[in-house]
Amino acid sequence: xxxxxxxxxxxxxxxxxxxxxxxxxxxxYETGARYDRxxxxxxxxxxxxxxASAAVGYCVxxxxxxVPQAGNTGLVSGSTPDGSGEEVVLSLDRxxxxxxLDPDNRSVxxxxxxxxxxxxxxxxxxxxxxxxxxGADPRIGGMVATNTGGSRFLKYGDVRxxxxxLKVVLADEAGTVLDLxxxxxxxxxxxxxxxxxxxxxxxxxxxxECVLNxxxxxxxxxxxxxxxxxxxxxxxxxKAMEExxxxxxxxxxxxxxxxxxxxxxxxxxxxxxFPGGNVPExxxxxxxxxxxxPRDGExxxxxxxxxxxxxxxxxxEAPLADALVGPPHEVWAxxxxxxxxxxxxxxxxxxxxxxxxGDIMTFCDHMKxxxxxxxxxxxxxxxxxxxxxxxxxxxxxxxxSPLLADAAFEQHLREWVVAIxxxxxxxxxxxxxxxxxxxxxxxDFYTPEKLKNIAAGLKAxxxxxxxxxxxxx
Length: 473
Hints:
Elements: H1 4-14, E1 19-20, H2 23-30, E2 40-44, H3 49-61, E3 66-69, E4 87-91, E5 99-102, E6 107-111, H4 116-124, E7 128-129, H5 140-146, H6 153-156, E8 163-169, E9 177-180, E10 206-213, E11 215-216, E12 220-228, H7 234-245, E13 249-256, H8 257-266, E14 282-290, H9 301-313, E15 320-326, H10 328-336, H11 338-343, E16 347-354, H12 360-374, E17 378-380, E18 383-384, E19 390-397, H13 409-424, H14 440-446, H15 449-462
Parallel strand pairs: 2-4, 3-4
Antiparallel strand pairs: 1-2, 5-6, 6-10, 7-11, 8-9, 8-10, 12-14, 12-15, 13-14, 13-18, 16-19, 17-19
């Protein structure tokens, strides 16, 4: 339990700007991006790795539970305190001093509190960027802790693929700092220790600095909305695009009619791009890109995309029913508005799932057939990263639905959906949101005991103190 004695001691370590205790001032740190809300005993805001180390060590020595928090944009209750009022949030929001660019190495060393948008704003003048495209604006430390992927995973991979080095504060009595910094892309001198801290939700240690791989900023892009001939034609369409475009293909995003309709209804700035305003049952956002400026005599990317689509259209059993090539900013505006639109349709119950690429549409078709039988008056508004096997499987219940009067309804729905995804389709219940209190039960149920024991051993070895919202034991 934290008391005034501990507050005073932590304030001496962090300064008056480094700790927040007022109820109104802590509200933003206690409230999640979508639906979770907890109660913090205090919020710690170290400005350096050294301050983070001192604060973490103090908390461990005094049995104070810590919840690391970066941008607080997660959707699985992984970055907010529980309702006990006894957990302390450790925020990265003041860890924004270090920004050391190495353009020759195409890398940058930054403090973990940088927002993704600010990082890329600074990199833009060097024609570089950190290639993780997200609808939210997280902090880099949180992206590492959750191993985010995003809409261009197909071309650039996830955070794990783009991390060269880390600095981590362990939750032990000394607040040990592990310097896992490296500017090397190839280094096979033993265990790649940084991987232990990527995608483990901050439970093994708090990332305070990162060395990131950077990519050349695209100089040319072309985008289109593609209408597949049917759900069964989505994978053949993807394979046809990959065969003809290779590394040019940077995104292949699926969007259901219900998700698009929600965005068009609740985001007034959007244009309806479909003929007659009739939204197809399923739409693919395809993007191709080049990292160099247009060259004399080189076919423009719009022409490349149109040529490839025409070629696919003319194949036997063509997987493409229609295509609308459009300006990238307008095309992506619709994709990025889906989350905002869906959450206005009613009570949102969201799942972050992944499958083998060939199983995504089969799963979605299965659920659209079975959901009305199992849970009537529920609307499926799915969209996702078809190119890498991920799908945001969103379920919306009207706010006046009698289903919401049943306290057990949501839990039953969640268990049913996840069971089908994991047991029937061998998918994952967490594609890129990592773990949090919201999916702790699924981790406990589906993870083999041996792996849970190994994870618990690593947690005890790296950070034996009370760190994070996930139990790996």
